[in-house]
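Good morning,

Attaching, inline, the backbone tokens for the sequence recovery test we're adding to the shared suite. The designed sequence is right after.
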């Protein structure tokens, strides 16, 4: 039995033992982003796809207003009454509460829930968005709320922002709308998108997980967004009217250098270049030009590390090691930054001896283990039959 099937079976059995038959069974995948980092909240372009790893949800309605939840991965439980003023302050429990708040407490009655999956928390592959989108979809199905896909995306974003992270739309949109064997070219200004086929031939994507946990509430993630907003304000005042960095292209970089201080210029110029890299990556995929795609990934990491300053020593080290392997066409940090994973475009299988060697070197250098995760494109949120 495949590991995903075993995982699904184990979650299902945990639910049956504790609550009996489930009313709704669904799966919410994680997300990998080929390129286009920190561009989504700047109304720019991104190129993500859903992955095979994700979170399974099993739920049933309760006969009263009590909510009983089991987080199977960590064997934690939560019980609360929707008629009481219960506000969890942190962790997965607060995500559940924020979803209920976003949907409206009056629309939700008590329920039983078991969830669990194989997404590493803090790995930059949208474990929190998979949890949130899965919960919104679950409530939609359980209570016949009539939400469209766009509604699910919107309510999921509302719930996550209630948690305190000022993220963009990429993660939620991908988790809801992805199609297997395609990446999504998403315009984060108007949410228009194209499904771009992934003709990878004998190539594949691997994630190298640093095991450095990032918590976006306690990093500079929100600061980067504020810096971009400040740059837009200064550019609009002293150069030309714009509403976001999306309104600029490569030809504007020389001009905005005259109106921004060094830090804001580096932030803004990265976003402008990254938007162009996304469009170039789209064309590379359409042309089956994976050599160019790999070079774009590496250029993206250099900008994220040097200009946007959201990398860390562990991420930079893994990208450097990847650049020395002739079978890795390109690599970059992926996600909000400050930890998590690198995404690597690999030709053929990775040599196990090389994997063992860099794993040992990583542990010696940083005092923790890293691990590799091969990923493939997957469909978005999907329901299972009981």
């Amino acid at each position: 039995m495949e590991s995903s099937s075993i995982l699904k079976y184990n979650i299902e059995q945990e639910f049956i033992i504790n609550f009996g038959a489930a009313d709704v069974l669904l799966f919410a995948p994680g997300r990998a982003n080929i390129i286009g980092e920190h561009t989504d909240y700047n109304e720019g372009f991104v190129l993500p796809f859903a992955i095979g790893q994700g979170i399974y949800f099993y739920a049933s309605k309760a006969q009263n207003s009590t909510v009983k939840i089991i987080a199977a991965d960590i064997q934690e439980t939560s019980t609360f009454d929707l008629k009481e003023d219960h506000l969890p302050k942190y962790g997965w429990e607060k995500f559940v509460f924020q979803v209920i708040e976003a949907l409206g407490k009056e629309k939700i009655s008590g329920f039983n829930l078991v969830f669990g999956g194989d997404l590493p928390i803090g790995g930059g592959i949208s474990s929190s968005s998979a949890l949130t989108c899965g919960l919104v979809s679950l409530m939609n199905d359980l209570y016949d709320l009539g939400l469209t896909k766009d509604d699910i995306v919107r309510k999921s974003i509302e719930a996550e922002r209630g948690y305190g992270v000022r993220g963009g739309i990429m993660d939620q949109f991908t988790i809801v709308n992805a199609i297997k064997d395609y990446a999504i070219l998403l315009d984060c200004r108007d949410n228009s998108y194209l499904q771009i086929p992934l003709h990878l031939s004998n190539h594949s994507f691997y994630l190298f997980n640093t095991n450095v946990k990032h918590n976006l509430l306690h990093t500079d993630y929100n600061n980067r967004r504020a810096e971009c907003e400040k740059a837009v304000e200064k550019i609009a005042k002293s150069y030309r009217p714009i509403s976001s960095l999306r309104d600029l292209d490569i030809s504007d970089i020389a001009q905005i250098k005259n109106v921004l201080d060094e830090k804001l210029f580096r932030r803004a110029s990265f976003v402008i270049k990254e938007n162009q890299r996304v469009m170039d990556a789209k064309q590379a995929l359409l042309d089956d030009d994976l050599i160019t795609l790999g070079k774009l990934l590496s250029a993206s990491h250099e900008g994220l590390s040097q200009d946007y300053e959201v990398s860390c020593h562990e991420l930079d080290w893994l990208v450097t090691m990847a650049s020395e392997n002739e079978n890795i066409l390109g690599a970059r940090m992926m996600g909000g930054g400050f930890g998590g994973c690198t995404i690597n475009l690999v030709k053929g299988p990775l040599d196990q001896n090389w994997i063992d060697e860099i794993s040992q070197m990583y542990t010696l250098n940083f005092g923790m283990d890293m691990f590799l995760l091969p990923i493939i494109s997957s469909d978005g949120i999907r329901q299972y039959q009981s």
